[in-house]
Amino acid sequence: MSAGNFNLEISVKGHGTHAGNRGAAIRAGGEGPSAGVNAVEKLIKVVQALQDLEQEWGITKRHPAFPPGLFSLVPGVFHGDVGVPSVGYMADHAYVGYLVWYAPQEDPEAVKAEIERHVHHAAQLDPWLRENPPTFSWRSHWPVADVSTEHPLVDVLVRSRSAVLGPPPAGRPATASFNAVSDASFLQAQGIPAIVLGPGNIRYAHAVDERLNMREWRECARIYARAIAEWCGTAD
Predict the structure, then answer these.
(1) If you average pLDDT over residues 40-53, what whole number do you get?
(2) For 28, 102, 107, 193, which has the most beta carbons within 10 A of its beta carbon?
(3) What is 152-231's CATH number, 1.25.40, 1.10.530, 1.10.150, 1.10.287?
């Protein structure tokens, strides 16, 4: 089982101007937004609002198969400028990119609506954002993967794993959630049951020192071979 996720981009516009106009733009007695609005600072307010929502999710969004806190809003990209990458201006546009993890039991459209509603409410507290609301671009969706632990293929893989590695320690479950995503989601969308089982440690995934233990790789090949033979009825 794996959670679903969205690739979300949130954009904010400002009023780009020379950095020398900052005082007039933000200080009492100045011209205010007509002198300039820094989109970067306005976008920071959106990020802070979503950090509050993420903290709320840590309490309210749970699933017995997943560790606490997995369902989250991960800001991975933040960018703003006035058309050139220079600190000599106040940015007239900015965007932040998020990876949004949601629980298997949730309606994806409801998750999207919750995020947009939360940002909208936060924007109402800022005069500029109230008149120039953030815009949302839902760039991709990776659906949930969920195969019942009662599916016969699960039994085959558990037996094959035990035959190669020995039975798991007492009290440790034979199956667990996958705290990432894989092509299993898209296979299942086509009606093909798919289960994730493989070597490696997610702590090294997409890292500068990404690596794989070759012993685990060889063991996994043996597990696959046993499972294929049993599933196809040629175990003998």
Answers:
(1) 98
(2) 102
(3) 1.10.150
